[in-house]
Design a protein that fits this description.
The protein is built from six helices and 27 strands. Strand 2 and strand 3 form a beta hairpin. It is globular, with a radius of gyration of 24 Å. It starts with a helix and ends in a 5-residue tail after the last strand.
Amino acid sequence: MAEREEAKLNELRKRIEATELPLNKADGAILQGMARAKREQEQKRRKRKRGLLMFAAAAVLFLALVTSIRVSPAFASSVASIPGMERFVEMIRYDKGLRSIVENDYVQNIGVSQTKEKVTLTIDGVILDESGINVHYTLTSPKSLEHVTIRRPSIENGGQELPPASIGYGFPHNGESPTVYTDVIEYRFSELVQYDSLDFTLGLEVGLGKEKIGFLVPFEVPEPPNPPIRFDVNQSASIEGQAFTVETVTIHPLQVAVDIKFDSDNSMKILNIEDMRLVDETGEIWSSIANGLTSTGEQGADVTYYLQSNYFETPEELVLKIGKLQAVDQENAAVVVDTESEVLLRSPSDGQLKLDEVSNGLIRFYMEDQADDGHTYDMFGQVTDATGKQINLSAIGMYQDGNREYWEVMLDEDYTGPLAIELTAYPTVIEGDVEIPLKKPQ
């Protein structure tokens, strides 16, 4: 592999000597195109379905957690009292915020059903706040539902579709009964919602082999959501010279939102916060959400990060702690690929990321010795060509093979190279010890 890359580099060097590579011009067009596409790409990135390995990793995590974490008798009995919710003892026991929601009777019973083509969809219960809604539902059918597929979930409120920041759904069949399927739709809004009405409609497409059944199920939530608890923080800090300001911390029943603004003069682009948590006076920790929406906004600028919720707790003291950030140099925040010569023109300076293959709209990267680093994430986002055009993607995936981790970017249209592919995560970190006490709202 190294010999092939060296040969390609030599070939490219000769071409550059003969003809100036218009990389500077391409850079300008690429940057303009990426700036134009920021708002669109953010929505697309949140909606993008994760690859099979992400799903498998989540399943492994889920199995490990359900066999190692015990739930309180209050939690188990609360779930058992809600029709159709027994299975969710297993699904939500690893999220302290969701456990607390159940124990504090914040799940609202619905019990509304609709039947089409002999398939019945029942909305068992919902969890609602201003930041999102969880809809727990059950499908029953005389036919087997072991290979059922769920598509196109949507939520309307008062006749208007709620704007999603992310949608999670489609748990695997639990195997208990082939004719019963239970699932939860985790719907997080792109902006906070003030409800003028508690009338909702769930839209869903159920696939049974070649048969597709569309449901539109109206339902009413009995009680309005609890209001959030907001801390106005406005405190600045820095880690290894990279400055940021924690503006607000908002505690909702479903999640905690931490609004952070990064300094535009930072030499590095902050891709993720790996270590952020709320800690009370007893040392109890509420950390990042294990399997769900973790952030929204523009990386390295204005970002909202999400933690597990402690809404129903009453701590005497609460401290926000930040310790580890994923970061790359600003000039290397997008990988640049010469697709014709299959050469990386620009990538993070640590040299870990390698280009494996470019063919038929597929670009594959890899890293060595990443299989045991504890990270499983999409690493790439928006793709922009040399003219500044935003390139549509058919899929982004990842998988492991031995000690190598592979990422694949699959393009869905023609382009003019070189291509710039934005990094959305990368395994280089900077570390510090930031502690910000939260003052109780007046």
